[in-house]
Amino acid sequence: MIDWLAAPSRVPDHAVARAAAARQDTLTKPPGSLGRLEALAVQLAGLQGRERPSAARVRIAVFAADHGVAAEGVSAFPQAVTGEMLRNFAGGGAAIAVLARELGATLEVVNLGTVNDPGDVPGVRRRVIAPSSANFCAGPAMTDAQLDAALMAGAASVADAIDAGTDVYIGGDMGIGNTTVASALACALLDAQPDALAGAGTGLGAEGVVRKQRVIARALAMHAGVDTARERLRCLGGFEIAALTGAFVAAAQRGLPVLVDGFITSVAALAAVALRPDAKPWLIFSHRSQELGHARVLAALDAEPLLDLRLRLGEASGAAVAVPLLRMACALHASMATFAEAGVSEA
């Protein structure tokens, strides 16, 4: 294991959270009447260590990588799409690029390795590990060195976010075949069967879903002897999922709140918590994906997402859509008058 993974996560500031909760009780509203918006403000206050938290400065990092298991025919789209989407991200045409502009958020796109390599693209950071991970039906998806490099790519992204004064970090994913990879990893981490977690992904029909589940079953049988979270990530994960895992661990260690996106990123969060259970308080779950396995992963993390809009795109799009909720929670918490300030009688 890389030494930095052994470092403990930062402990949220419970005294600040209590102070924020006390402030909520003085605002001109019945206690609890703003529901989860109140809880969000208090949670962020404890994570950021300030009674009046902020979600103004948001950094979105999208990690892209290809997967060897795509050779098994598990996706409705050709593998070339991963590299093509890197140009789309950088050119501003992808959903997450539009959302980032609307939010005034910083968008970082990281190429960890694509079969259809677009080369140097302005606006895309090259941290290429290999053209793709290996086919996990034939052997481990990654070598130890590749896994370390992917984990470190995520940690480096978080370091940059902290240097930029980021309030909230969002991780996103792009990679043809990555719902297969995420489903396989989740099955191993949760001791679950493929038919409980593997769904349609990019739009497979019923026959394609069955094929995908059979591919995952073969992979699970091949790697049945693997019994640690790190080895499960190495054998069944992918570069972008490992990078997200590293980012979430590093964010918890450095004290940076994370807004988790959908199925792929939630599986990375599951892996991060398996590696470092004390990372869990730093993860805020944005939405419930339509992908079959997401509900099971959320339940395992005891997570209640903020939104359910039937999204299943990835790219961090669902998390981006939830940012205004965080901002409204912070604005209400900071700017509402107290009963004393407004001269309003308390209950």
Automatic annotation (TrEMBL):
<dbReference type="GO" id="GO:0008939">
    <property type="term" value="F:nicotinate-nucleotide-dimethylbenzimidazole phosphoribosyltransferase activity"/>
</dbReference>
<dbReference type="Pfam" id="PF02277">
    <property type="entry name" value="DBI_PRT"/>
</dbReference>
<comment type="pathway">
    <text>Nucleoside biosynthesis; alpha-ribazole biosynthesis; alpha-ribazole from 5,6-dimethylbenzimidazole: step 1/2.</text>
</comment>
<dbReference type="InterPro" id="IPR017846">
    <property type="entry name" value="Nict_dMeBzImd_PRibTrfase_bact"/>
</dbReference>
<protein>
    <recommendedName>
        <fullName>Nicotinate-nucleotide--dimethylbenzimidazole phosphoribosyltransferase</fullName>
        <ecNumber>2.4.2.21</ecNumber>
    </recommendedName>
</protein>
<feature type="active site" description="Proton acceptor">
    <location>
        <position position="315"/>
    </location>
</feature>
<keyword id="KW-0328">Glycosyltransferase</keyword>
<dbReference type="InterPro" id="IPR036087">
    <property type="entry name" value="Nict_dMeBzImd_PRibTrfase_sf"/>
</dbReference>
<comment type="similarity">
    <text>Belongs to the CobT family.</text>
</comment>
<keyword id="KW-0808">Transferase</keyword>
<keyword id="KW-0169">Cobalamin biosynthesis</keyword>
<dbReference type="InterPro" id="IPR003200">
    <property type="entry name" value="Nict_dMeBzImd_PRibTrfase"/>
</dbReference>
<comment type="function">
    <text>Catalyzes the synthesis of alpha-ribazole-5'-phosphate from nicotinate mononucleotide (NAMN) and 5,6-dimethylbenzimidazole (DMB).</text>
</comment>
<dbReference type="InterPro" id="IPR023195">
    <property type="entry name" value="Nict_dMeBzImd_PRibTrfase_N"/>
</dbReference>
